[in-house]
Amino acid sequence: MNERTILDLNETRNVIIEIIDQVRGDRTQLLAVLRECQSRWRHLSPQVITLIAEEMDLSRVHVEGVATFYHFLSRTHRGNYTVYVNTSATAEMAGSHAIVKAFEREVGISFGETTSDRQIGLRTTSCIGMCDQEPAILINDVVFTRMTDAKVTKIVAGMKANRPVRDLVESLGDGKNALEEIHAEVSNHIRVRGPVFFTDFEPGTALKAAMNHGALEVIDEVKQSGLRGRGGAGFDTGQKWGFCRAAESETRYVMCNADEGEPGTFKDRVLLTEMPELIFEGMAVAGYAIEAKHGILYLRGEYAYLKDYLENVLTKMRQEHLLGRRILGTRFSFDIQIKVGAGAYICGEESALIESAEGKRGQPRNRPPYPVTSGYLRRPTIVNNVETFGAAAKIILNGAAWFRKMGTPASSGVKVLSVAGDCERPGIYEVEWGMSIRELLAICGAKDVLAVQVGGPSGQCISQNEFDRKLCFSDLSTGGAVTIFGQKRDLLSIVHNYMEFFEDESCGFCVPCRTGNTLLIKALEKIMVGNGTAADIENIKQLGKTIKATSRCGLGQSSPHPLLSTIRNFTEIYQKKVRADVDFLSQFDLKFAVIDSCVAANRKPNLEIDSEVVDGTRPN
Ligand code: SF4
Known about the structure:
Blueprint: H1 3-22, H2 30-41, H3 46-56, H4 60-67, E1 81-86, H5 89-93, H6 96-107, E2 120-125, E3 137-139, E4 142-144, H7 149-160, E5 190-192, H8 205-213, H9 215-225, H10 237-246, E6 253-258, H11 267-274, H12 276-290, E7 294-299, H13 307-319, E8 335-340, H14 350-357, E9 381-385, H15 386-398, H16 400-404, E10 414-421, E11 427-432, H17 437-443, E12 449-454, E13 460-463, E14 481-486, H18 491-505, H19 511-528, H20 534-550, H21 554-558, H22 561-569, H23 571-577, H24 590-600, H25 611-614
Parallel strand pairs: 1-2, 5-11, 6-7, 6-9, 7-8, 10-14
Antiparallel strand pairs: 1-3, 3-4, 10-11, 12-13, 12-14
Helix pairs in contact: 1-3, 3-4, 6-7, 8-12, 8-15, 9-10, 9-12, 12-15, 18-19, 19-20, 20-22, 22-23
Bound molecules: iron/sulfur cluster.
Iron/sulfur cluster (SF4) is lined by residues 346, 364, 506-510, 513-514, 551-553, 555-556.
C-alpha cells in the first residue's frame, strides 16, 4: 500500500466512524449507515463494506449480505445523480417508456449504466408510490412527477451543470408537499374526505382520552370498534394489542409499517404528509395500551423525502409533551424513531420489516412465534399499518360505537383507497367499507372499464360482471390499491409487468417463489408471442396453486394472483392467444438456442435442424 492509499483509507475510515457515531454505534442502524455511505460515495465499495464491518464489530459477510439485499444500495457506482424511473404498470400506462428513451437520448447511456465520468446513473425501479401522477422518477431521494420529454431535457442539463437536485424541482405540490423540508413535486389528490382521517384533529386529544380510559379499556374499546388491520391482512387490531400486552416482557415495541410497496398503493404517503400527528398519536396510544416505551416508524426508502419533515413533527410533539418522558405530565413515557428502508417490497411483510429494522436483510421469519410475543429484538411487538394507527387514535377519541356506525357489520369504519389508472380523478378516497366497485368507478370518473385490480398485484383482477361486488373484508378485501384498466389496455402486458415485479422482489429464500414465478413468466411469454396451447394455461394454474401452497410468506403465496385471477375472469383473452391446432408446443427452440455458441465458435448455425423433431415434440 503506498502513502496516498493509506491516507485515503484513513480518510474513508474517519468518515465512516463519524457516520457510525451519529447512530451511537447501534448495530440495528446498519441500514442507515449503509444508506449514508451510499449517498456519500454513490456506491458501497469492498473497502467501505470492510471498514463498516470493522467499526461496527460485525462480520463482513453480514454487512455485505445487507448491502446486496436492497435495491437502492449498490456495489457499483450509481452516478453522482442516480435517476430511478418507475416502470410499474401504471407508470407504463402513463408513458414511462418514452421517459426512459428520453433519458437515454439526453444522457447518452442505456438504463442500467453510469456515465464514464460517474456523473449520471440511470436505473429503473418498481412502484415509487406516485401512481396517480406518473410518469414519476426519483433522483437522489427527490421526487419528480408528471414527467415529459421537455422536462427530462431540462433535468439532464441541470445534472450536467452540477446543480443541486432540489433546485431542479420546477413546481411544488399541494398541501404540506410545498413545505421547505419536503420540497416535492407531489400532489395529494385527496378527492373524498371522510370523517376519520382527512378532517380536523387536535394533537393531544386522543392521548388524553386514552389516559382517561386506562390501558385495558383502550384495548377493549379498539376491540369493540371492530378495527381490523388496514395494510391488507385484516387482523383484529384490539386482539393484536391484547396479545402483545399479555406477553411476558419488560420491554415491548410499537412498529408502524409505512412500507407500502404494493404497486397501486400510495395512501400512506398522503396520510403521513397531511396527518402525521394523528398517526404518531395513534402509535403513542398503542404504546400506552400495551405498556411500550419505544415506537419505530419504518418508512419505505422511496419516501425518504418525507423524513426531515416527519422528524420535525416528532420534535414538535416532544416539545408539547405528547412524546418523550412523562407524556402530558403523567408517568407514561414513549418516543418514536424513524428508520428508512432502501427499496425492498418484501419489507412490507411484518417479520421482514422487523428484520430490516434490526439492520438485517429483509427476509421473512418463520412463524410462530409471532411478533406479538417475539418481534423487534425478540421482544413483544405490535406491527400495524399507518392507517390503522390513525383509525385507532380516532376510535379512542370518538368511541367504538361511532366507528361501528360506519361501514358494514363485519367491516366497520372507513377505508382510505388509492385509486389509479384509467379514470378522470385518480387519487385518495376515504370511503365507508361496503362501497361497490361500480359506485367507486362512478365517483372517480372511470368509463369504458375493462378490468379493476383490487388490492394491488397480490389482490384480484375483476371484470365488469363483478363490479357490483363490495369493498369489505368478506368480499373484496384491499389494503387500499384500486387500479383501473380501460378497454384499450393490453391486460396480458399488465399481468406480465406484475409478475416481473414479484420475480424481482422475491427475497429468494424459498424455491417455489424464487423459481416458480420465473417459470410462470416464461409460460405467459410463450402465450403472449402466440406459441401457447391450452396445456400451458393448465400448467400455469397448477404451478400457481403449488406456489401459493408451498411458499413461505405472503409474497410467494399471492404472487401467482395476477395470472390466476385473469385466467379466471378474462379466460377469453387467453383463449384467443393460444394455439388451438396443437396440444403441446415446446418452448425450446434448438436453432435459436445454439446461435450464440455458433457465433462464438465461428461456426455457421445449422438452420436445417428441426427443433421440434430433435426434442420429440413435433405437433401432429
Ligand atoms: Fe422470500 Fe418469496 Fe419465500 Fe417469501 S415466499 S420467503 S419472499 S422467497
